[in-house]
Design brief:
It contains six helices and five strands, in the order βαβααβαβααβ. By secondary structure, it is of the alpha/beta class. It has one domain: Rossmann fold (3-Layer(aba) Sandwich), CATH 3.40.50. Strands 3-2-1-4-5 form a five-stranded parallel beta sheet, with helices on both faces. Helix 4 packs parallel to helix 6. It starts with 5 loop residues before the first strand and ends with a strand. 43% of the residues are buried.
């Protein structure tokens, strides 16, 4: 197995997602890898309400997404990552993360476990479960919530 070179991690600005960012940054620092921090956002409320899940945080508009990325970058830097890029994408968190993974040729995707054990997550799917099924690269699900 070769070392990871491009690591993608998603954030929605929540405490849980920042824990995943921290873990991804630690791995990026250990491997000397590039860390790409991604944030999805909805362009309007209609889109958000169509796809909203109980376990997700709604990021409405690109301004909040950019603020989330600033916080996540600070977290990643404090965890030791040095080669950091950010990306925002409109759409659902799963769509955005998959797009960022493909565009960057990621070999590792890191997400938090929020929603994976909820009833809604089991019935309708959750971001961690959905990206694990769709991803063509390794996926690490970080234990960020009980």
């Amino acid at each position: 197995m070769s070392a990871y070179k491009n690591i993608v991690v998603g954030t929605d600005g929540s405490k849980s997602s920042l824990l995943a960012v921290k873990r991804a940054a630690q791995i990026a620092a250990a491997f000397g890898a590039k860390l790409i921090i991604g944030c999805a956002y909805y362009e309007n409320e209609e889109q958000a309400t169509k796809t909203l899940r109980k376990d997700s945080v709604t990021v409405l508009g690109d301004d909040p997404a950019l603020k989330n990325l600033e916080s996540a970058r600070s977290e990643a830097e404090s965890a030791g990552a040095t080669d950091i890029e950010t990306a925002i994408k409109p759409g659902t968190p799963v769509e955005a993360l998959m797009s960022i993974v493909h565009e960057n040729g990621a070999d590792l995707l890191v997400v938090g476990n929020r929603g994976i054990n909820s009833l809604t997550g089991r019935l309708l799917g959750s971001v961690p479960a959905d990206v694990a099924r769709q991803s063509e690269c390794d996926v690490m699900i970080v234990h960020t919530v009980q």
